[in-house]
Design goal:
This is Nucleoside-diphosphate kinase. This protein is of the alpha+beta class. The chain is built from 14 helices and 8 strands. The mean pLDDT is 92.
Length: 268
């Protein structure tokens, strides 16, 4: 079990959400690097350039925005929830959103409320370390059939998220589960499982089973740790790039190792 104080003090939830959290609480707006397409969409939607908004001091990360607007995470989330995609909310990329609240622009304004659920007084998480033979259950089926869809209403019958959804009263939950609060999280790949064990359980690539397997293939530990932040990585010899996590998602351990080695060798 992880307690509220430990989760907060050690930034465990911020590490867990990686780039999403970094854009909301760690990086200043000038440190962000939206794509040319995203910058173009920002200008088309709001009538000023991204650089002009930065120069005018109009862009805030979520943590800064709470101070600017005089609200807490829940208050910011309430304002953020009123935004509409394509009207006053622009998606810059995966887990990277910019919304206009009043006269300012806020990055990932949803995050502070999400973080607060983990860091509120009395909050805690319970975790399980599980393993199984690949020939008995694929990673994709583990997520799709054992865990269930992100939207619990769409989760497969008998899955954990379906169970939580249909029995939330009996389980003593305060509200009906939804896509954001669906009761259970599970790693999306063997690599993400390694990253999450290193964060929450203080494992290292040298002590984690999957981490040791990557090291044995010649993937350097600094690269493995850099990958924990889900960077955009080259995925072919032509220079196409994609999210590291997305590239390895739902792969079984052997295929995940094979892909990880291939990606590592593309950039020596």
């Amino acid at each position: 079990m992880g307690s509220k104080s430990k989760i907060d003090e050690e930034s465990l939830v911020d590490n867990h959400y990686g780039a999403i959290a970094a854009k909301a609480v760690k990086l200043l707006p000038r440190e962000l690097a939206p794509s040319a397409k995203a910058v173009g969409e920002f200008e088309a939607k709001f009538g000023l350039t991204w650089s002009s908004a930065l120069d005018a001091g109009l862009v805030y990360n979520a943590k800064e925005a709470c101070g600017k607007l005089g609200v807490d995470g829940a208050g910011l989330d309430k304002k953020w929830s009123d935004l509409k995609r394509g009207v006053d909310l622009v998606k810059f990329g995966g887990g990277f959103y910019c919304g206009k609240i009043g006269e300012i622009f806020v990055i990932n304004g949803f995050y502070m409320a999400m973080r607060g659920k983990f860091c509120a007084p009395g909050a805690s998480i319970y975790y399980y370390l599980v393993e199984w033979p690949t020939n008995a259950l694929s990673w994709a089926d583990f997520r799709g059939k054992v865990l269930g869809a992100t939207n619990p209403l769409e989760a497969a019958a008998g899955s954990l998220r379906a169970l939580v959804y249909y029995e939330w009263h009996e389980l003593g939950l305060e509200f009906e589960p939804n896509t954001g609060d669906n009761g259970v999280h599970a790693s999306a790949s063997p690599f993400e499982a390694c990253a999450e064990r290193c964060n929450w359980l203080k494992a290292t690539p040298a002590t984690d089973h999957f981490g040791k397997a990557m090291l044995a293939l010649g993937i350097p530990e600094p690269k493995i740790r850099a990958w924990f932040d889900d960077p955009q990585v080259p995925i072919d010899a032509q220079g196409a790039t994609a999210s590291l996590f997305d590239t390895l998602e739902d792969t079984n351990a052997d295929k995940c190792l094979e892909k990880a080695k291939f990606l590592s060798d593309l950039v020596a």
